[in-house]
Design goal:
Layout lengths: L1 H19 L5 E4 L7 E16 L5 E2 L2 E2 L2 E17 L4 E12 L14 E10 L8 E6 L7 H10 L1
Antiparallel strand pairs: 1-2, 2-5, 3-4, 5-6, 6-7, 7-8
Length: about 150
């Protein structure tokens, strides 16, 4: 019961922080009316885990009846902006699965990398009619469904 109360408190705090973030933006306006800008955001998904272990379980070589862990599941920094009436860019940099056991597992690849780097050019000024863009995404194709199909074909 103690753990459930702690988990609820963390969720309520996380929701409060998320709703308060809109007031203080990291945004630099490139013109007077703010339609051209560069903006930075920081995102994090935190996991709190507790489990009862099977008899004989060891964690880092020490016998453990249960395991408690707070991990940063997804941590991201985004930088994006509308540079001109026609040019938009988006980048996302971060890491996955940073937790107590990450550095001790031996086979984990704990490193930050670019998840997305995209550029977009609007062919018609002040219109969403036709945009051309490209870049690096974490997916292998146009949509996530294609990503899963591609993996099945390999």
């Amino acid at each position: 019961m103690k753990y459930i109360k702690s988990a609820v408190a963390v969720l309520l705090f996380t929701g409060t922080v998320a709703s308060a973030q809109k007031k203080n933006e990291l945004k630099y306006s490139l013109n007077a009316d703010g339609t051209k800008y560069i903006k930075a955001t920081f995102l994090n998904q935190t996991w709190v885990r507790w489990n009862q272990s099977n008899p004989g379980t060891t964690v880092n070589g020490v016998s453990a009846d249960n395991t408690f862990d707070i991990g940063l599941r997804r941590t991201r920094m985004q930088l994006y902006g509308q540079l001109t009436d026609r040019v938009f860019f988006y980048t996302q940099f971060g890491m996955n699965n940073f937790n107590f056991l990450a550095q001790n597992a031996g086979n984990r690849k704990l490193q930050a990398f670019f998840h997305d780097v995209l550029g977009e050019y609007s062919m018609f000024k002040r219109s969403n009619t036709l945009k051309l863009g490209g870049g690096l995404t974490i997916l292998n194709g146009f949509v996530k469904v294609h990503h899963n199909v591609h993996r099945l074909r390999s």
